[in-house]
Amino acid sequence: CYGTCCECSCESQTLGLLDLMRVVQDTEMVRETVDLPDEVRTILAGWASVLDQEVRRDGDALLVEYRLDLCLLAADAEGNIQFYSDARPQSFRLPLGRSANTGTQEEQPFLLPSLTPLSLSYSVKGPSAEIRCEVQVCGSLCRMLSRSAITQVSCDPGRPCPRDSDCALTIYYADRGETLWDIAKRYRSSLEAVLE
Prior knowledge:
single chain; 196 residues; 3-stranded antiparallel beta sheet; rod-shaped
């Protein structure tokens, strides 16, 4: 930091910032075959729930692993209602793209997922049921960034900045990569004055 009239000093601190890279909203169709007990004659209802989700890095993608609990309410030959549940492992691969493969270890992307079964349909084929379940994958693809931020600025009016009073105009040729801020700081001027 700098001042245009007097000497200034500043204190800074490294902060952790959560950077939202993109919002994920996708669906996948899960197809499974479930073996039914011999006594089952008809399926009355079916639904699913997501259990034990975990996200890990897999090359240039994130792999969302979870168990999909397939639940069936069925009737046997005598009309007795029975409940069947079968949790099956599933996975969803989320490609990261080139931009997510850069940065330090702390800047590696992570996903905060929400997995929701949207629909479940089934058809009985002999001693088994073909189940189709649409699962919605939503979440925020983020990364942690470490950035330095100014936390306090102190100016000392008792220490005025030296100025060249003989100079009314300075012509300056900027070096490649030099910013207006750098030039203004060097000459203890404002950005507006440099632009003029």
